[in-house]
Amino acid sequence: MPAAPPARPISDELRDDVLVRLRRIEGQVRGVQRMVEDRRDCRDVVTQLAAVKAAVASLSTLLAERYARDCLCAGDSVNSDEVARLLDVLKAAR
Length: 94
Known about the structure:
CATH superfamily: Metal-sensitive repressor, helix protomer
CATH topology: Methane Monooxygenase Hydroxylase, Chain G, domain 1
Shape: elongated
Structural class: mainly alpha
Number of helices: 3
Strand content: under 5%
Order of helices and strands: HHH
CATH class: Mainly Alpha
């Protein structure tokens, strides 16, 4: 079995975007916690949880796309092991 390729860190630009999104998601989750503590209507809580889920899915998709473009397609050829890893990442992101 071939060794895993060296890790490729997230670019500074993408890192900043990811951190902003994660902080926003964190704020959304805290908002949901407050809603539950305040005994808000279940429909409102579910609506906010759906927004959190969508934000996480959007971030996962962004990172997977950047991984595919910047890491898999950066070389002269596409490595089938890397493609399999991408598929695993996409499956886990769902």
